[in-house]
Write a structure and sequence with these properties.
alpha+beta; FAD/NAD(P)-binding domain; D-Amino Acid Oxidase, Chain A, domain 2; 2 domains; 11 strands; binds flavin-adenine dinucleotide
Length: about 230
């Protein structure tokens, strides 16, 4: 799956379905009225909504009112795109250090690092060195491949590395984040579950282990078992 094409397709599909995009106007806080979420507070305005879904990736916890439900932190991943004239890869190749994926345009994508380095998306010499040496170890003929692109992204990592999905104890406030290394693959099931919850207030799978409320019970349990 091409994640860049997927993002463009989702944007287009949502606009065709009537979604309004507030581009460049980031969310500061949830808009609370008593125990209800009435919408969102943006930089210069408020947006009212019956249902509010927080899906801001590793930035979710920086939105006021969200950290207790989605205590995510960024896990940086660096990648390298290579082009090799004399190597064809038909399937995903894995080693303990790396994976290699062939793209339709002929590029071989090698990744990825997992680094807890804050909200820093810069590509580093050490990161790229690790990827390249592991890639050449796995497929030695890559030594003569050309480097076409390097980049880094930030994954949303939760304390137990599991997604954070579903309703909170604030009416109308729903989480869809914490997908860590699998958020692209989990896009369809996440969208389906959140839609089911919003339209029917139930889902047809057991999703309790992904509940946004699990971090509050973990904090309460820790306090209960702490030495006096
Ligand atoms: C190098 C690398 C390789 C990966 N490979 C794979 C893979 O092979 N397969 C896979 O399934 N997953 C992969 N992932 C993981 C995947 O990219 C993530 O799990 C996924 O992007 C998370 O999606 P998301 O929508 O929750 O967050 P994001 O993709 O981070 O999107 C969050 C969005 O919210 C916006 N936002 C943030 N803060 C605010 C705010 N305050 N107000 C308004 N908007 C805001 C951001 O601008 C962004 O558009 C990889 C990640 C990396 C870094």
């Amino acid at each position: 799956m091409d994640n860049r094409a997927l993002t463009a397709a989702i944007l287009e599909a949502s606009q065709r379905s009537g979604a309004e995009i507030f581009s460049g106007n980031g969310v500061k806080a949830i808009w609370r009225e008593g125990n209800r979420c009435a919408g969102l507070v943006l930089q210069n305005e408020k947006v009212e909504a019956k249902w509010t879904v927080i899906a801001a990736g590793c930035f979710s916890a920086t939105i006021d009112g969200i950290a207790q439900y989605a205590p995510v932190r960024p896990a940086k991943g660096q990648m390298v795109a290579l082009r090799a004239d004399d190597l064809k890869i038909d399937r995903v190749l894995w080693s303990e250090k790396i994976y290699l994926v062939s793209r339709n345009d002929g590029r071989i994508v090698a990744g990825a690092t997992v680094e807890h380095a804050g909200f820093d998306k810069r590509v580093t010499a050490g990161g790229i060195e690790k990827i390249l040496s592991a890639a050449i170890e796995l497929a030695p003929s890559l030594a003569s491949a050309r480097i076409e692109e390097t980049w880094a992204g930030l994954r949303p990592d939760s304390p137990d590395h599991l997604p954070i999905l579903g309703p909170t104890d604030i009416d109308g406030l729903v989480m869809a984040t914490g997908h860590f290394r699998s958020g692209i693959l989990l896009t369809p099931i996440t969208a389906r579950l959140i839609r089911e919850w919003i339209t029917e207030q139930r889902v047809n799978v057991d999703w309790d282990r992904f509940s946004p409320l699990r971090f509050q019970s973990a904090a309460t349990d820790a306090a209960r078992h702490a030495p006096a």
